[in-house]
Amino acid sequence: MMTRWAKFVSPEHVHHEYPRPQMVRKEWLTLNGLWDLSICPKEALRPEAFDRRILVPYPVESPLSGVMESVRETDSLWYRRTFQVPKKWDESHVLLNFGAVDWETSVYVNSKKVGDHLGGYDSFSLDITDALKENSSGKDRHELIVRVFDPTDRGYQPGGKQVLNQRRIWYTPTSGIWQTVWIEPVNVTHFSSFKCVPEVDSGTLSIYFPRSSSGNRVQILATIFDLGRKVSEATHDCSVEEQICTIVAKIPDAKLWSPDSPHLYDVKLVMISNGGVSDEVESYFGMRKISVGRGENGFNRILLNDKPLFQLGLLDQGFWPDGLYAAPTDEALRYDIEVTKRLGFNLIRKHVKVEPDRWYYWCDKLGMLVWQDMPSGDKIIDSDSLDIERSAESAKEFETELKAMIDCLYNHPCIVMWVAFNEGWGQWDTIRVAEWIKQYDPKRLVDSASGWFDRGAGDVNDVHIYPGPGSPKSDRDRALVLGEFGGLGLPIKGHVWQSEKNWGYRSFDDRDELTSAYIRLVEELGGLVQSSGLSAAVYTQTTDVEIEVNGLMTYDREVVKMNEELIAAANKKLVTT
Hints:
Helix content: 10-25%
CATH superfamily of the largest domain: Glycosidases
Structural class: alpha/beta
């Protein structure tokens, strides 16, 4: 099964957009395209020959990769390509950037190992300057080798819904490189990261920078623009003793970000060192505030910019029939969000998966709230008596990847809640984990466990009820949310993953019957908002995924299965209740 966007994919035209919209440098070079590939036993050394070709950044198991092979937990993947560095970069340091690689990665340039990485969802960068200089071939082409090991669900790492044995709600794995690879030139003193913290109450933006790795004393200038017009400017001299440098800029008459008005400010950041500009990047931010407070009738409500807003969303798995974890194109990424908004939803719960940066960019730009799940991993429990016991290795990796996810996505205004665990999927040390997230990011809400089992932690009390709807019992301190409901299934002939044995929580025979059933659920939700103080509800789901046919759209995104006009009207009525 292929989507309509697959025809636009070619080795010369594959995710060519700059992949990091919140930290943009003008000079860069994509390494997406055709690479050599070899699938070897896990412990094997670099292969003598690479016997396949793969289109990066599509996972090995996907049709768009051109490989479409299963990877065993005893296999490793070896990628190879050559590349040239523009002559004008000769005096620069060169960073090699990976959007995401699943899961254990080692990288070599010109036979020199330049770094390792653990984590299937977070971006990472390596300075390859020394390896470029050590090119012994005498040619201006450099060799890049990437070795990846991914045991999928046979390992302890967070992997979401990827399994080697696909069934019902468990899907085809993604192994290897699945997001953009690119290089860019920098000076020795440059921005490695920064954190934008909007303060709606004070009308300010605080920007936090880790001290330059070069150790040089630097000055940072931040200039803020509203639709091209400069509205604020601030500077800070960072001493070598400061571990974190901070700029605070006043945002006069701040325009707040919301789904109805997703206003974004642009910011230009300049680093000055030794009397000259050492780095310059462009970014953006949104002024928005998320909190829990008392609403009408004394219920706790989720507040956006201090006002109650019922959040009605879709559970979004982020799978594609042709690219699996990797959308075929940037336009495809945007399409799912546009349809979600067109149908009257204002929220997406990104389900046990992390997307490329550009997906969140489109949510920021189009005005879509996001609850971001931490990808699940380890054992699934079916009792609320005890959390699971994780090995020290498993626990460390979960916390490392949780922190990496928050760090990578922190600056996106669309994200209003972190979801630590889905149901009992690897739920462990729940109260401590929820408290750590809240301490690390106090500006967002925390859902300690979406669905069962609730430990009383976090900002929301979240239940799953199929088909529902329903609400948690009253909670003195937390808002009440319905993290999953619905799951109304309808297979559409000619648009299913397989012709038989399709699965849904509740099945229907035609479009009109499905539409009526959905509208009844939404009308019942309206009653729960008034009687129970329900603050949010998430319908399952955006699209069909493999044999699961609960989507509002078919897996290939060709058919919206309900009457668009009727469900959009029902949704918008509920959201404005």
